[in-house]
Each structure stands twice: as C-alpha cells, then as structure tokens.
TrEMBL record:
Belongs to the 4-toluene sulfonate uptake permease (TSUP) (TC 2.A.102) family. The chain crosses the membrane at residues 7-31, 58-79, 86-108, 114-132, 152-169, 175-195, 216-239, 245-264. It is a multi-pass membrane protein. It comes from Microbacterium algihabitans. Pfam families: TauE. InterPro entries: TM_pro_TauE-like, TSUP. This is Probable membrane transporter protein.
Length: 272
C-alpha cells in the first residue's frame, strides 16, 4: 500500500511506494533516453508516493538526482554510437545553461497559471506539425553547413528551451528534439543525441542548487537512479538500433502525455 508505514527516516516511503517509484524510474529512464520527457512519468510518481509532509523541493531534488544519472548513461551510449558536431553542441549546451539559470531566477515572479495554457497550445501545435509531416526528421539532412549559421541557431535553441526548463520544465527534452529537427534539419536520432547532452547540462545545474541546500532524499534518489540508468541504457540502445522512425513514434506518444498533463493542469487551475 502506498500509504503504509514508511521504511525509515532516511527512506520516507512505504514498501509499496518504493516499488512504484522504482518501476516509474525505469520507464522514465527509457522514455527520456529515446526522446526526452521522462519527467512526465517520474515526477508525478514522486508526488503521489512521497508523504505529503515532505517539502516540495525535496521531491524536485530527488527527481533531478535520479534523472541526472539516467541522462548521463544514455548520453554515454549515444556518444559511443553517434557522431556529434561541437559547432552545434557547444553553443547548444552553453545556451541551455544560461537560459536555465535565467528561467529559474525568474520562475518565482511569473505565475504558473499564465504559462501552462500557453505551453499547452505550443505543444499541441508541435504535435500536429509533426503528425502531418510524416517525413520530417526521418533522414538526417542538415540545412546549414557554415559554422556560424549552425552555432547561432544552436545557441538560440539552447537559450529558449533552457529558459523554459528553468521556468516551467515538463517536456524539455522533447522541445530540444523538435527544434533541432525543425530548425536545423537533423534526423530525430541525431537530434536526440544533442538534446540529451543539453538536458544533462540543465539537470546538473538544477541538481547543484538542490544539493547545496540539502534538498534531496539521497537514498531514494540513488535507488531510483539505478533503475533510471538501466532504463536509459536500454532506451538509448533501442533508439540507435531502430533509428529515427522509432524515435519519431516515441516522440509523438510523449507529446500526447505532455498534452494530457498540461490540459489537466490548465483545467484544474481554472476550476479550483
């Protein structure tokens, strides 16, 4: 039972809740490795399973700890199999870190109820655009060859998505993927590699903040990290074997989950 007695003070969940969280972490790691968006699974599971007297920052910090290690394992698999361009990756990562920092700093001043409906409309538009362009991203056909053209576009993508991650967050990996595909002409698989490393950067920045304040349930986070790493390892291997067509399908499914979550949040804030 999720509401049963907690295991210990340093692991403040019941046995049933722990099982739920470990399964959720494994599935989230798989989804996150393929296309991003694993937080749509893992974070709600933490909210449900962790006792309500545990402060929210501890839930967010624990989620980031698990996600960081899962993203790290997936990035390692991708980098061994897929070649990346530093002219794209470096400005993407720098932009993502800067954008995430600014977004996190401003998040306390921007009402969430204003942002959620806007993001919902954007995600629906992205989903429809991807659905009705079935050939988009199936082949790796970069639109730009000049280093300067690639670099400034990558930096702009990093800033925009990093800012979103800092100020709101859900589906960050998916936004990285679709912008790299749509703006730069990359295949879904190649876009996922770069998105994964950029997302690793934003996760590390957030984890550092939570860690400095001691807002992490360490044992729970590490236990979930083991399953997240396993899921990430399997997901990255599947993505590199099956290619962009497989990643596109998972991308659309993940967007559908994100749409449901954002729609639920929007309805809840207007009916509460």
């Amino acid at each position: 039972m999720l509401d049963g007695p907690v295991i210990a003070e340093w692991l403040p969940v019941s046995v049933g809740a722990l099982v739920l969280l470990l399964v959720a972490a494994g599935v989230a790691g798989w989804v996150d490795a393929v296309v991003g968006g694993g937080g749509l699974i893992q974070l709600p599971a933490l909210v449900i399973a962790v006792p309500k007297d545990v402060a929210t920052p501890f839930i967010l910090g624990t989620n980031k700890l698990s996600s960081f290690f899962g993203t790290l394992s997936a990035s390692w698999v991708y980098l061994r199999k897929i070649r990346v361009q530093l002219v794209l990756l470096a400005p993407l990562v720098i932009g993502a870190f800067a954008g995430s920092t600014v977004g996190a700093a401003l998040s306390r001043y921007v009402p969430r109820e204003v942002l959620t409906p806007i993001v919902l409309v954007a995600v629906v538009a992205v989903g429809l655009y991807t659905l009705f362009k079935p050939k988009m991203g199936l082949h790796h056909e970069p639109r730009h060859t000049a280093a300067r053209a690639i670099a400034w576009r990558a930096a702009a993508i990093g800033l925009a998505v990093g800012f979103y991650d800092g100020i709101l967050g859900p589906g960050t990996g998916s936004f990285f993927v679709i912008l790299i595909v749509g703006v730069l002409g990359y295949g879904f698989l190649q876009a996922s590699v770069n998105a994964k490393i950029a997302n690793l950067t934003t996760n590390l920045a957030a984890l550092a903040v939570y860690g400095v304040h001691g807002e992490v349930i360490l044992v729970l986070g590490l236990a979930m990290a083991v399953l997240n790493v396993t899921g990430g390892f399997i997901g990255a291997h599947m993505a590199t074997r099956r290619g962009s067509g497989f990643v596109r399908i998972v991308f659309l499914v993940t967007l559908s989950l994100l749409i449901v979550k954002l729609a639920w949040d929007t309805i809840a804030q207007f009916t509460s």
